[in-house]
Specification:
Layout (H helix, E strand, L loop, with lengths): L2 H6 L27 H9 L13 H13 L4 E5 L2 H12 L5 E5 L4 H9 L6 E5 L5 H4 L4 E7 L11 H10 L3 E5 L4 H4 L9 E5 L13 E5 L1 H15 L5 H33 L4 E5 L9 H7 L6 E6 L4 H10 L4 E2 L9 E3 L7 H7 L5 E5 L5 H12 L7
Parallel strand pairs: 2-3, 2-4, 4-5, 5-6, 10-11
Antiparallel strand pairs: 1-7, 6-7, 8-9, 9-12, 11-12
Helix pairs in contact: 3-10, 4-9, 10-14
């Protein structure tokens, strides 16, 4: 099925919509039944039947169906946040005494959650690349978790190779695909078992919602929906689901624009004398550009670059001089944002993650590329050029 059709029209012409151009938002917290027997039967399938908002809701269900179709998944489950999806997914796959294997750099709070699980007897190990997997796996390893491109470093892994290795070892592979969106990369088609997205980023696209989703086989999604989803209470609201649906309608158009502007800005920085290196997998200079061309259909506009200075005051001054780029966390919205991780995370965490002091993260929005480049050029005037 065509991705553009899925984003714009899938499920929106059904009778329950009553011809409304915007699918109705079901605000009710519960649904009634004609008989006690009907309610008892519905509760058995509360992940699919409309019983109580905590289980599912018609508006949320439509968003889930669209996201599942985009990822070529049997099912998807939406959560009230990206971390809601991540924590529920990992929890569903492990028990006390199990081990999680992490490949490459991943979202900071995901690592924090894995550390949190240690008090329940679940351990984890980080490995830098594929060569370290064989020596890091244990008899109690159950999950392989990774991102591609990786968090902050924007390095790629061969997704099909990683998924095949995990499958051969009897592990469930879980990948965070937020950076690419389902339009530019479809990990499930390359053998990954479960895919996670923060819907707060590109899918929502307007910095007005917080949400998450996990997609995969019914066999893996249904236990999450029946247990962790309900017990952890990270239910997505129908209003946020409606924002997801509206965000999906324009996702193909927005991602094309993000890609164009992001590459233009990255190319400018790549040639600037005050920039040490640009970490954007769409650039010819990126070490994984060949792999990107094989497993990705496009590039989003979040990337990092390293200033020629590792002086924290210089980095902070650079951010402060920017006028169009706004200083903030998160990314993927219509507005362009900037952050310097070394200025906001603990030194021990920064060193462990290998984040250079001079690393700056950009989220290139939908403003004109030349306006963004001019903003960066003026701010870079205060940075000492590389020797």
């Amino acid at each position: 099925m065509n991705d553009d059709w899925i984003c714009g029209r899938l499920g929106e012409d059904e009778p329950w919509a009553l011809g409304a151009v915007n699918p109705p938002i079901f605000e009710n917290s519960l649904f009634t039944f004609e008989t006690a027997a009907e309610l008892a039967e519905a509760i058995k399938d509360e992940d699919e039947r409309y019983v109580y908002w905590r289980g599912t809701n018609p508006t949320v269900d439509l968003a889930q169906r669209k996201l599942a179709a985009l990822e070529r998944a049997e099912r998807a489950k939406c959560f009230g946040s990206g971390m809601g999806a991540i924590s529920a997914t990992i929890s569903s796959l492990v028990s006390a005494g199990d081990h999680v294997l992490v490949l490459g750099s991943i979202y900071g709070p995901t690592t924090q959650f894995l550390r949190y699980l240690e008090k329940f007897g679940v351990t984890h190990t980080h490995v830098g690349d594929l060569t370290g997997l064989d020596s890091a796996i244990r008899s109690n390893t159950r999950v392989l978790y990774f991102e591609s491109p990786s968090y902050m470093s924007y390095r790629l892994v061969d997704i099909a190779e990683v998924a095949a290795w995990a499958s051969g070892q009897g592990l469930v592979s879980v990948m965070d695909n937020t950076w690419s969106t389902p339009l530019f990369q479809k990990p499930l088609t390359m053998g990954v078992d479960l895919v996670i997205h923060s819907l707060s980023k590109y899918v929502g696209g307007h910095s007005d919602l917080v949400g998450g989703v996990v997609a995969g086989s019914t066999e893996l999604i249904r236990p999450i929906a029946l247990t962790e989803y309900q017990l952890y209470g990270a239910a997505m609201s129908p209003h946020d689901a409606a924002k997801v649906i509206k965000g999906l309608r324009t996702l193909p158009v927005r991602m094309a624009a993000h890609q164009e502007r992001g590459l233009a800005v990255a190319a400018f920085l790549d040639a600037h004398e005050a920039v040490r290196v640009v970490h954007h997998p769409g650039l010819a200079s990126h070490p994984d550009r060949g792999l990107a061309s094989r497993q990705m259909a496009g590039f989003s506009s979040v990337f990092g670059f390293e200033l020629g200075s590792d002086d924290r005051q210089v980095v902070a001054a650079f951010l402060d001089r920017l006028k169009v780029f706004r200083i903030a966390v998160s990314w993927g919205g219509f507005e362009s944002l900037v952050a310097a991780p070394a200025l906001t995370i603990e030194e021990s965490v920064r060193a462990t993650m290998g984040v250079p002091v001079g690393l700056v993260r950009l989220s290139v929005g939908l403003e004109p590329a030349d306006t963004l480049i001019e903003d960066l050029a003026l701010a870079l005037e205060g940075v000492v050029p590389l020797a």
